[in-house]
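Weekly sync, protein design subgroup
Attendees: M.S., D.O., the rotation student, P.L. (late)

Item 1: inverse folding check
M.S. brought a backbone from last month's batch and wanted to see whether the design step gives back something sensible before we order anything. D.O. pointed out we never logged the input encoding, so this time it goes straight into the notes. Structure tokens as presented (412 positions):
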């Protein structure tokens, strides 16, 4: 008896349906989440995704992928699975944890999206969490001594702030003054977006506890410094090098927070009546010298553009993670984009709002999706970030609201 022929397989379009995040907090004993568990942050986001998308039956979710850089304690124990159970998803819904340092949530998205395109999943939840107050970056790690003894990488590669100083060395025309000006613009753009109601709808209110102050509710981001001035930035110390360039003002802080998003095959989203926020076009990851990890988004973007047949001129919106101002400036300099281009981080970035490591990729995507809804004249957008140990990550998206007529009108 002959075996039945295998059914031909074709790739499916993948869409970003919705994304949410907790307000981001400052890491440390005085931060809003100092006594709140990391897994509870994720659980709250998953529940809110389901609440906001009642057309989605929970049993239709095929996977939950949650990233964390430091996978221990309340960020350990296969977080995707435990968070799914704690969120009340059916026990038939599997889950897993993933790690690519700062690009953890971004990798959770590309990994599950690839499964959707391939036909292994119809619907997935992807996201990330980092509680840097409970779990500082590098907690419990034991780097192999060969990394340094055999000079596989420069020792500075293990200190993210030092890698940013190295980037300033490599591109001396990208001065501290330019980094400070970019940092100030990030604070100002974020404050304007909050005032306009552009940032806020994606936030999930989060219960907090404090042994000293009792219970509370986090409703807004804690890190922003709206009173920032250029003079104030210029007065800050450079902790990673005497007379250096990188300060607490032109870099993202240490933060706590979580993000999640809902991904689906486009045909399944249409079947269920789910909104389509944006459509996946392609992505790229790349490795670079670890001691200048901030340059990583340049080759990852070049790879993503080449594989999708697009050029940098096709990109109408950029959401670039601001781990350090110099990292974004190096990206813009390479592609010939002005420091103050209004296509870049129009609602501010991580210098203002914070960077809870593995969660940040989905924050970028959620903001881009909301910006697409406002700007039908923009067809393509890009989310990108540098990644510790010398990597870059880029994901390109298409605006489902795009209209050629709107694009022509915007160009006039």
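Designed sequence read out in the meeting:
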């Amino acid at each position: 008896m002959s075996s039945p022929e295998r059914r031909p397989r074709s790739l499916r379009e993948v869409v970003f349906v919705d994304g949410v995040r907790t307000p981001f907090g400052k890491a440390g004993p005085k931060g809003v989440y100092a006594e709140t568990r990391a897994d509870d942050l994720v659980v709250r986001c998953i529940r809110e995704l389901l609440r906001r998308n009642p057309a989605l039956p929970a049993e239709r979710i095929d996977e939950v992928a949650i990233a964390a850089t430091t996978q221990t304690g309340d960020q350990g124990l296969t977080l995707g699975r435990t968070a799914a159970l704690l969120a009340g998803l059916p026990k038939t819904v599997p889950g897993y944890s993933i790690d690519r340092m700062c690009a953890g949530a971004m990798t959770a998205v590309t990994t599950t999206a690839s499964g959707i395109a391939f036909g292994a999943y119809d619907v997935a939840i992807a996201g990330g969490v980092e509680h840097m107050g409970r779990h500082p970056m590098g907690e419990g790690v034991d780097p192999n001594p060969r990394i340094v003894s055999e000079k596989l990488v420069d020792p500075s590669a293990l200190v993210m702030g030092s890698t940013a100083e190295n980037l300033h060395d490599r591109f001396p025309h990208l001065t501290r003054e330019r980094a400070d000006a970019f940092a100030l613009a990030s604070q100002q753009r974020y404050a304007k977006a909050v005032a306009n109601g552009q940032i806020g709808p994606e936030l999930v209110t989060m219960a907090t506890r404090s042994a000293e102050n009792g219970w509370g509710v986090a409703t807004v981001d804690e890190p922003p410094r709206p009173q920032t001035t250029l003079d104030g930035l210029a007065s800050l110390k450079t902790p990673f090098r005497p007379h250096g360039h990188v300060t607490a003002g032109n870099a993202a802080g240490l933060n706590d927070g979580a993000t999640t998003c809902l991904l689906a095959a486009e045909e399944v989203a249409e079947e269920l009546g789910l909104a389509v926020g944006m459509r996946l076009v392609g992505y790229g990851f790349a490795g670079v010298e670890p001691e200048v990890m901030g340059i990583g988004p340049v080759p990852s973007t070049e790879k993503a553009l080449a594989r999708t047949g697009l050029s940098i001129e096709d990109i109408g919106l950029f959401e670039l993670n601001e781990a350090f101002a110099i990292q974004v400036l190096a990206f813009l300099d390479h592609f010939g984009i002005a420091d103050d281009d209004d296509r870049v981080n129009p609602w501010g970035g991580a210098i203002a709002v914070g960077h809870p490591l593995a969660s940040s990729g989905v924050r970028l995507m959620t903001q881009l999706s909301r910006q697409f809804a406002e700007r039908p004249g923009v067809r393509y957008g890009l989310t990108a970030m540098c990644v510790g140990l010398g990597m870059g990550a880029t994901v390109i998206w298409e605006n489902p609201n795009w209209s050629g007529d709107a694009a022509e009108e915007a160009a006039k």
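Discussion: The chain has one domain: 14-133+154-397. The chain has a mean pLDDT of 95.
Action: P.L. to compare against the previous round before Friday.
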